[in-house]
Amino acid sequence: MIRIITDSTCDLTKADQEKLGITVIPLQVLFGTTHYTDGIDLSVEAFYQKLETEKELPTTTQINPDTFINAFEEYLKQGDEIIAILLSSHLSGTYQSAVIAKEMLETDKIHLIDSQNVTLGLALLVGEASKLRDQGLSASEIVEEIELLKNKVKLIAIVDTLKYLQKGGRISAASAVVGTALGIKPIVQVKDGIVQVLGKERGQKKMYKFIAHYLEEHQIDTQYCVVFAHSMAETSLKSLKEMIEEKYNINDNRTVCIGSTVGTHVGPGAVGVAFIAK
After folding, report:
1. What is the pLDDT of residues 3-36, one digit of tens each?
2. Contact indicator for 24, 8 with CB cutoff of 8 Å
3. Domains identified in the chain and CATH numbers
4. Residue 238 and residue 241: Cα distance in Å, rounded?
């Protein structure tokens, strides 16, 4: 049997995890001196409540090699082959921990993929890997296809507030004050494994025009799933989905709520979409 493993930054719901038949290993979230296990004893709703009230931004700790060894050994003992698709190595040391674990276990039954992505982009790749497994492809065939697809993943999102980008040192306090006063909202993407500011717009009409232009430039390949995401902003996400679905015949889509790793920097109110470009 082929087992697909990922980490909790994929932000897939428990229902989607079961539907896809995958195993999710959680990261740890640290608020001050208090540790929480992502998605286990800290829900997405509770995370954003704490994010708004705590003075300091939380941090996330990478999954350590021992945790991967324990997870890998459980399936190896059953004679399974493992594909681990993990968040970008530019955002966390989690992928490197998996590399260390594989080296310590000395087996060719573990296949590791640095997704170069996170949250909805990672969820997209994990979903496609699950689909390929269910179609009967071998582990090596799945890995080959996901390695190709990960370079075609496009992720774009609108950030509702500059507060958390400023608190995290990604923009200056002065820029945050001026931007907030003018109603300017940054538009971000994940490219080459890191979160980058793609542009800044004022007003929903201009933001959606920016995204429409981005979609025209990169063209959604509708044979693959499209993943939508929000950070406690379902109403705003509905508007974004309607705008995209008016132009594209999307056959398969999934929605995730942006969790702690990206949510720490974008805060509540963000919406985004990830897709495979043609």
Report:
1. 999 999 999 999 999 999 999 999 999 998 899 9
2. yes
3. 2-150 (3.40.50.10170), 153-276 (3.30.1180.10)
4. 5
